[in-house]
Specification:
Radius of gyration: 18 Å
Mean pLDDT: 96
Number of strands: 9
CATH superfamily: Aldolase class I
Number of domains: 1
CATH topology: TIM Barrel
Largest sheet: 7 strands, parallel
CATH class: Alpha Beta
Structural class: alpha/beta
CATH architecture: Alpha-Beta Barrel
Low-confidence stretches: none
C-alpha cells in the first residue's frame, strides 16, 4: 500500500497551441521530483480535468507516470460526475501504472450521501489501487460528511481524503470517526500547517506548482515536529497562497508559472486569463518571494 505524506502537488496541465504540451508537462514532473515533492497528482481540478477530452485525460496520466519513472508515486485524478466514466478512468490509470487514485465527489448532479457512498464503493470495486477521496464542496456543491467518509474508510482500498473544506475541526472529527491510520491530506494551502498540527499528513496543493521546494520543506518540518520552522515558511508563502486564489484556480497559478518561464499561461474556456490587476499582484508577490531565494 502506498504511503502518502508531505507535499503532493496537484499538477497544472500546460497547453500549447490548444493542445496538451507533453514536453512542458514532463518537465514539470521532473521539477517536482528534484524539489523533493512526495508524489504528483495529475488530472485533478488544478489540472483542468473538466475541460480535458477523455484522450487528453488519459495521456496526462501516462505522461506523469512516464516522467515520474517510479521515483515518486503518481496519484491519478479519476473524478467524474458520471460513475461509469470514473470507473473507466480508474481502470485506465491502473493499467497505465499509476500508484493511486484521487477521486472527487460527483459534481453538478448533487448526489445524496447514499449516492456518494454507492459511487465510491463502485470505484473501489473497479480497481485494485488505493483511493484518496477528494472533498471540495466549493466545487462540487455537495460535500462528503464525516459520517460518509467514515463509512467509506472501512473499505480496504479507500485509504484517505483530500480535504479542501478549509475547516480544521473536520480533521479531529474525521480522525475520531475514521481512525488514526486514515490518511488526511489538506487540499487548502493556506491552512496546511494547521491541518498537520491537527493530525494531517500533508497537502495536495496548488502553491507547490510555483514553489515546490519551499512547500516540500514546510511539510518536512511539520513531519519532524518543527512547527516553528514550518510556520516561518508558511509566513513566506502566505501571500502566494492568497494571490493564487484571487481568481478561479488554475488561471492565477498558470500565469505565475508563465512568469517563471515554466509554461504558457493558457487556460481553457470557460476559464480565462487573470485580469491585469491580478497579474500585477502575482508579479509583485513573486518578486517579493524571490528576493530572498529563488522558488
Amino acid at each position: 500500500m502506498v504511503n502518502l505524506s508531505g507535499s503532493l502537488p496537484a499538477l497544472v496541465t500546460p497547453f500549447k497551441a490548444g493542445a496538451v504540451d507533453a514536453d512542458a508537462y514532463q518537465a514539470l514532473v521532473e521539477r517536482q521530483v528534484a524539489a523533493g515533492s512526495s508524489a504528483v497528482c495529475p488530472a485533478g481540478t488544478t489540472g483542468e480535468s473538466a475541460t480535458l477530452s477523455h484522450a487528453e485525460h488519459r495521456r496526462v496520466i501516462e505522461l506523469a507516470v512516464e516522467a515520474a519513472a517510479g521515483r515518486v508515486p503518481v496519484i491519478a485524478g479519476v473524478g467524474s460526475n458520471a460513475t461509469a466514466e470514473a470507473l473507466d478512468l480508474a481502470r485506465f490509470a491502473e493499467e497505465a501504472g499509476a500508484d493511486g487514485l484521487l477521486a472527487v465527489s460527483g459534481y453538478y448532479n448533487k448526489p445524496t450521501q447514499e449516492g456518494l457512498i454507492a459511487h465510491f464503493t463502485a470505484l473501489h470495486d473497479a480497481a485494485s489501487l488505493p483511493i484518496i477521496l477528494y472533498n471540495v464542496p466549493g466545487r462540487t456543491a455537495v460535500g462528503l460528511t464525516v459520517e460518509t467518509i467514515a463509512t467509506l474508510s472501512r473499505l480496504p482500498r479507500i485509504i484517505g481524503v483530500k480535504d479542501a473544506t478549509g475547516d480544521l475541526a473536520r480533521v479531529a472529527l474525521q480522525r475520531l470517526a475514521s481512525g488514526a491510520d486514515f490518511i488526511q491530506l489538506s487540499g487548502e494551502d493556506m491552512t496546511a500547517v494547521g491541518f498537520n498540527a491537527m493530525g494531517g499528513r500533508g497537502c495536495i496543493g496548488v502553491t507547490a506548482n510555483v514553489a515546490p521546494g519551499l512547500c516540500a520543506k514546510m511539510q518536512k518540518a511539520c513531519q519532524s515536529g518543527d512547527f516553528a520552522a514550518a510556520l516561518a515558511i508558511q509566513d513566506r508563502l502566505a501571500p502566494l497562497h492568497d494571490v493564487l486564489f484571487a481568481e478561479t484556480n488554475p488561471a492565477p497559478v498558470k500565469y505565475a508559472m508563465s512568469v517563471l518561464g515554466l509554461i504558457a499561461p493558457d487556460v481553457r474556456l470557460p476559464l480565462c486569463a487573470p485580469r491585469p490587476e491580478t497579474r500585477a499582484q502575482i508579479e509583485q508577490v513573486l518578486r517579493d518571494l524571490e528576493a530572498k531565494e529563488p522558488v
